């Protein structure tokens, strides 16, 4: 190993006249010492991950392995392949990029090379063409070693993303009139649904507003809607079924069952399309055929415009209808592979690096799913980075004003400024406002919001004093912005992030654009309170600092991570397993028949059956039917809203209560009271918290039944729970109840999770329900000051903070902030 390190070190010096740092060499040694199991390393942003990656790839290739290097984008893949080609050539190795080679019915040249750079989707599509289409795209290349750059993005954020190849099927054009009919019905429905205070009303007939008062027409009637989403989806599903079965449209027989199976999916896509926004979720641009089309944008994590992607399940078509674009047919997905499924091909030979591994829950997810080790590397030089206290503005006007003044303050100091925005729309607006309000030279304000044009040049050249770059998350990951000596002398690059990032990893990646390689730099969050409240689904709030918003955000990520680990991973594995089984059947058919038309027909049948299966395979039909039966017995209808399994209890209860606070806030209030009653009042010590017995006991005691009892007490409501596995309701009754809510539970089986559902009462509560209510034991209600936010519960927060600190100590992670650092004092 010493000889190998010496060789690649000398090659790097010859190539770029740079001596690899001790931290880079140490990283390679760690990867090599743990080569029997995969390893992921957190290497600070700006610490030369590209060089470390190339050195590791060279050693693996010199050992006789073919090495695939997965990047977050096509731009980075081409850049790194071009920049490192000379380095590999010195060692007698070849490298290429799978982005540059056009695909066809033959092997790509790049796969004959020792090292191949490329984005994950190109590797996946090439495998699908090779394995399913039998184009021989990968030649004889095996899955030997993979090195993943920015590993958190692909192994965590995009774990469930799937690359799909689709084919056109004759007759699919008959679905277009159905889509247009659904879009038209939804447009008319939206005009009849109005919001009055916290109530949603559907008006059947004419109406008008006069002096702020709702006036109904002569034959009009109004209905209160408790679940807007379920109400609309139900009407759209009925419309689709009526169009298919009523003979209103001429649809080929083989498509009728297919459309009926897809009716709920079509309705949901129509609803979703009206919520999507141009220059946020997508752009409108020309594709290769010169027709304007909808192009998806990953604005949440990377900012990448996915020019080769289409949304499925008719969402793409509904967006085309929304903008009056040429309507394309939905192709039938016949082959696919998830990120998880693809990386599993490499077995224990997965190596990765990133500037941000993320939270404890994210680390545990990666360990449990991929079976890898995780390590943390120190920085080469002490960081000269300072995070300035975040700034919260209470409306969009003052938010824009604060961003403008902050940019001006920094450029007047002779610094350069990078502004990272949530969306393309925000980036364009902030740039234009700064130029017009300040009268700043537009040539010095660069825009980097798209990766499908030449805007990437904005971050290619060195920035000088007074330069401003306005960007999306495209500049927030993997972008190395060089600063002039003048900029460094004046304090380095200043980064302004204008939104609350999706998670800690995205936030740290954005801040990591400055203070790289020992340079100076500062960063600050400047956020709009209404925007972040909408993002976190907060209807009423009284938060004192950005840190409190961050804690809520991190709590949401924890829920999402646990849901992924418990449910999503199993779903992905099942999808990939189904496709592998299909490939075996197809291979046998090809060998036995060798008739391309029959193989093609098999592919069509598989695509249609797969679509049907996708709507059914993950549902616990026994539990669904059990809940529907007991609900019907007591006079209820089960809501069709698709609620995530992990926090469906709080979402369902919250929906029943009118959602005046977030689901997470309600969950925190419940947890807070439980901890308060069981542990804080008993003066539990921090040493006790550190014991495994404490967490085991906490997990065992804080059951759903305990949570429902607390919810009943703190909200002063009766809760009636109907379970799919029981004949009698569970009652949680409180003295002086303000109301009674009714919820259902699809109880878990071995392969499915518990899922709570909201119940609609279509008849007055039956005498049976009243009997159960009257017989139930009444509990005394508990007063909890709900308008006081959870972070002001001092005793509870001390305990929660202690738990988080303990988790950080166990995982050897330096805490970034405490839950309420300014208010908590330990005795």
TrEMBL record:
Q: Show the Pfam families listed in the entry.
A: Helicase_C (PF00271), SecA_DEAD (PF07517)
- Keyword terms: ATP-binding, Cell inner membrane, Cell membrane, Cytoplasm, Helicase, Hydrolase, Membrane, Nucleotide-binding, Protein transport, Translocation, Transport
* Record bears the keyword Hydrolase: yes
GO CC aspect terms: membrane
Tell me which Gene3D superfamilies the record gives: P-loop containing nucleotide triphosphate hydrolases, SecA, preprotein cross-linking domain
Q: Does the keyword Membrane apply?
A: yes
Annotated TM spans: none
Under SMART domains, the record lists: SecA_DEAD
Q: Which ranges carry the SecA family profile domain?
A: 1-558
Where does the Helicase ATP-binding domain start and stop, copy by copy? 30-203
Q: Where is the signal peptide?
A: none
Tell me the ranges covered by the Helicase C-terminal domain, including all copies: 403-578
| Molecular-function GO terms, alphabetical | ATP binding; helicase activity
Its domain of life reads Bacteria
Its Gene Ontology biological processes?
intracellular protein transport; protein import; protein targeting
Q: Which PANTHER family match?
A: CHLOROPLAST PROTEIN-TRANSPORTING ATPASE (PTHR30612:SF0), SECA INNER MEMBRANE COMPONENT OF SEC PROTEIN SECRETION SYSTEM (PTHR30612)
- Protein name (Swiss-Prot/TrEMBL): DEAD/DEAH box helicase family protein
Q: Which organism is it from?
A: Orientia tsutsugamushi str. Gilliam
Q: What is the lineage of its organism?
A: Bacteria, Pseudomonadati, Pseudomonadota, Alphaproteobacteria, Rickettsiales
């Amino acid at each position: 190993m010493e000889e190998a390190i010496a060789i690649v070190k000398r090659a790097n010096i010859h190539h770029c006249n740079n001596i690899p740092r001790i931290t880079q060499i140490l990283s390679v040694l760690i990867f090599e010492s743990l080569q029997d199991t995969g390893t992921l390393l957190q290497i600070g942003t700006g610490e030369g991950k590209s060089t470390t990656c190339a050195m590791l790839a060279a050693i693996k290739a010199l050992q006789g392995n073919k090495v695939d290097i997965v990047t977050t984008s096509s731009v980075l893949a081409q850049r790194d392949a071009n920049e490192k080609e000379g380095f590999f050539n010195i060692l007698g190795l070849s490298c290429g990029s799978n982005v540059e080679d056009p695909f066809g019915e033959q092997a790509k040249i790049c796969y004959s090379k020792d090292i191949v750079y490329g984005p994950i989707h190109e590797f996946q599509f090439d495998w699908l063409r090779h394995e399913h289409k039998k184009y021989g795209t990968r030649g004889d290349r095996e899955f030997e070693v993979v090195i993943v750059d920015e590993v958190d993005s692909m192994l965590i954020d995009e774990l469930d993303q799937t690359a799909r190849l689709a084919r056109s099927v004759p007759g699919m054009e008959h679905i277009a009139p159905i889509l247009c009919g659904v879009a038209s019905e939804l447009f008319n429905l939206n005009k009849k649904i109005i919001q009055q205070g916290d109530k949603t009303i559907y008006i059947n007939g004419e109406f008008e507003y006069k002096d702020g008062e709702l006036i109904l027409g002569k034959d009009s009637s109004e209905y209160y809607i408790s679940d807007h989403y379920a109400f609309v989806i139900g009407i759209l599903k009925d419309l689709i079924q009526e169009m298919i079965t009523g003979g209103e449209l001429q649809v080929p027989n083989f498509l009728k069952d297919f459309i009926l199976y897809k009716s709920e999916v079509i309705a949901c896509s129509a609803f979703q399309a009206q919520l999507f926004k141009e220059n946020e979720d997508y752009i409108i641009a020309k594709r290769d055929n010169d027709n304007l089309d909808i192009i998806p944008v990953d604005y949440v994590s990377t900012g990448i415009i996915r020019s080769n992607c289409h949304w499925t399940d008719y969402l793409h078509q509904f967006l085309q209808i929304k903008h009056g674009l040429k309507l394309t047919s939905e192709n039938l997905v016949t082959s696919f592979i998830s990120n998880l499924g693809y990386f599993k091909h490499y077995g224990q030979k997965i190596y990765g690096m990133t500037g941000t591994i993320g939270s404890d829950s994210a680390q545990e997810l990666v360990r449990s799913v991929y079976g890898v080790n995780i390590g943390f590397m120190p920085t080469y030089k002490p960081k000269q980075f300072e995070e300035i206290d975040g700034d919260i503005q209470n409306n969009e006007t003052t938010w824009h004003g604060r961003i403008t003044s902050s940019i001006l303050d920094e450029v007047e100091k002779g610094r350069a400024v990078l502004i990272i925005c949530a969306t393309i729309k925000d980036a364009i607006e902030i740039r234009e406002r700064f130029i017009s309000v300040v009268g700043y030279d537009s040539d010095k304000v660069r825009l980097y919001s798209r990766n499908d044009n030449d805007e990437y040049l904005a971050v290619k050249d060195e920035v000088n004093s007074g330069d401003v770059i306005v960007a999306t998350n495209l500049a927030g990951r993997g972008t190395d912005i060089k600063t002039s000596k003048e900029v460094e002398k004046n304090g380095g690059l200043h980064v302004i992030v204008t939104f609350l990032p999706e998670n800690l990893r995205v936030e740290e990646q954005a801040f990591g654009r400055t203070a790289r390689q020992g340079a100076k730099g500062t960063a600050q969050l400047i956020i709009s309170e209404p925007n972040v409240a909408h993002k976190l689904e907060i209807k009423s709030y009284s938060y004192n600092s950005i840190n409190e918003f961050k804690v809520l955000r991190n709590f949401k990520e924890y829920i999402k991570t646990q849901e992924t680990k418990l449910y999503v991973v199993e779903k992905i594995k099942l999808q990939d397993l189904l496709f592998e089984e299909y490939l075996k059947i197809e291979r046998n058919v090809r060998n036995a028949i060798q008739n391309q038309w029959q193989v093609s027909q098999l592919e069509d049948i598989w695509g249609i059956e797969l679509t049907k299966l996708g709507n059914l395979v993950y549902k616990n039909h026994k539990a669904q039917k059990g809940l529907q039966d007991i609900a019907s017995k007591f006079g209820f209808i089960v809501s069709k809203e698709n609620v995530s399994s992990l926090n469906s209890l709080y979402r369902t209860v919250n929906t029943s209560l009118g959602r005046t606070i977030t689901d997470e806030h309600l969950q925190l209030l419940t947890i807070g009271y439980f901890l308060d009653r069981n542990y804080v009042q008993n003066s539990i010590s921090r040493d006790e918290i550190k014991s495994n017995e404490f967490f085991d006991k906490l997990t065992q005691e804080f059951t759903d039944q305990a949570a429902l009892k607390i919810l009943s007490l703190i909200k002063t409501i009766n809760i009636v729970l109907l379970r799919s596995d029981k004949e009698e309701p569970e009652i949680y009754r409180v003295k002086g109840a303000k109301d009674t809510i009714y919820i259902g539970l699809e109880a878990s089986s071995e392969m499915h999770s518990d899922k709570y559902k909201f119940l609609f009462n279509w008849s007055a509560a039956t005498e049976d329900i009243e009997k159960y209510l009257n017989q139930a034991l009444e509990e005394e209600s508990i007063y909890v000051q709900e308008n006081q936010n959870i972070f002001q519960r001092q005793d509870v927060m001390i305990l929660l903070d202690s738990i988080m600190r303990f988790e950080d100590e166990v995982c050897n992670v330096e805490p970034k902030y405490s839950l309420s650092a300014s208010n908590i004092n330990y005795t």
